[in-house]
Amino acid sequence: MKFCWCTITVNNMEESLKFYQEIVGLSIEKRYMAGPATEIAFLGSGETKVELLYHNDVNQNINVGQNISLGFEVNSVDEMIKFIQEKGLKIESGPFQPAPHIKFFFVKDPNGLSIQFVENIQL
Q: Where is the VOC domain (predicted)?
């Protein structure tokens, strides 16, 4: 079995696309209307795929859950923290280094979903 993608229902498609493109670094693979009031965008290439789903005819009350996060590997946590701060985003928690070979921190996406940026440190 192969994992295909993670679907995130979003409050604002443009705001979410900007976050996942500019902050996470995912490119839009495809974007389309799935009916008159539903828009879908797939981001990422290779194994990493995120699907954004927006319903423009529904008053969105998105509940992403407090104990769910998506993790993305970065070359340097310290450089990513600097980048996040330059973009005006808040670090939600961390950085943490629970073992010598891993370091990570969390931010929130525009919908309140926890996004983890992790550095795998070669010893």
A: 2-120
Tell whether domain 1-56 is in CATH 3.10.180.10: yes
Pair 107, 117: CB distance under 8 Å: yes
Strands, sheet with 93-99, edge to edge from the N-terminal-most edge strand: 69-73, 114-120, 102-108, 93-99
What tokens does 20 get?
A: 């996942």
Type of residue found at 22: E
For residue range 41-91, list pLDDT tens digits in order.
999 988 889 999 998 876 666 777 777 899 999 999 999 999 999 999 999
Give residue for tokens 């104990």.
67
Q: Give the architecture (CATH level 2) of 66-123.
A: Roll (3.10)
